[in-house]
């Protein structure tokens, strides 16, 4: 989990602005209900925004599960041992909502992958709106 988050964040953090600065990010998992990776990326982005860390763009992650019947479940909650065909987690950048990282578990077709990516991209736009509203509210106070 840590390496995937690190790789995704390295795509958006402007490390060259402060070359002699160490940015230490510690993510502590309190509960894993199946979407912990996306939650970790999104909460880390919020923390970076709050800390004023310069970034090229924002990052939003979303998980989708392909159920055994082929249906797609966005941000699914499941417990260990639950049956599913595949689980995919996408990270998107805010400029063009392009995929910057993806991790998968299970098997799926190319068509299913594209449907999952489209569904998660739509959800990521909602996360970007949440970031924007949160920042506006923070600086109004």
UniProtKB/TrEMBL annotation:
GO cellular component terms, semicolon-separated: cytoplasmic exosome (RNase complex); nuclear exosome (RNase complex); nucleolus
Q: What molecular functions are annotated in GO for this chain?
A: RNA binding
Q: Which UniProt keywords apply?
A: Exosome, Nucleus, rRNA processing
GO terms of biological process kind: nuclear mRNA surveillance; poly(A)-dependent snoRNA 3'-end processing; rRNA catabolic process; rRNA processing; U4 snRNA 3'-end processing
Give the Exoribonuclease phosphorolytic domain ranges.
Answer: 3-54
UniProt KW rRNA processing keyword: yes
| InterPro entries reported for this sequence | ExoRNase_PH_dom1, ExoRNase_PH_dom2_sf, PNPase/RNase_PH_dom_sf, Ribosomal_Su5_D2-typ_SF, RNase_PH
The UniProt record lists the keyword Nucleus: yes
Q: Note the Pfam families from the entry.
A: RNase_PH (PF01138)
Which compartment or compartments is the protein found in?
Nucleus
Family designation: Belongs to the RNase PH family.
Q: Which PANTHER family match?
A: EXOSOME COMPLEX COMPONENT (PTHR11953), EXOSOME COMPLEX COMPONENT RRP46 (PTHR11953:SF1)
What name appears for this protein in its UniProt entry? Answer: Exosome complex component RRP46-like protein
């Amino acid at each position: 989990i840590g390496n995937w988050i690190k790789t995704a964040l390295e795509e958006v953090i402007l490390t060259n602005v402060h070359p002699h600065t160490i940015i230490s990010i510690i993510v502590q998992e309190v509960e894993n209900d199946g979407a912990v990776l996306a939650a970790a990326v999104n909460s880390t982005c919020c923390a970076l925004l709050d800390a004023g860390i310069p970034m090229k763009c924002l990052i939003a992650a979303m998980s989708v599960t392909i159920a055994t019947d082929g249906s797609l479940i966005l941000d699914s909650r499941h417990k260990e041992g639950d049956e599913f065909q595949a689980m995919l987690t996408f990270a998107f950048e805010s400029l063009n909502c392009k995929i910057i990282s993806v991790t998968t578990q299970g098997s799926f077709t190319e068509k299913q992958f594209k449907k999952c990516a489209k569904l998660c991209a739509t959800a990521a736009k909602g996360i970007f709106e949440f970031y924007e509203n949160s920042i506006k509210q923070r600086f109004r106070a």
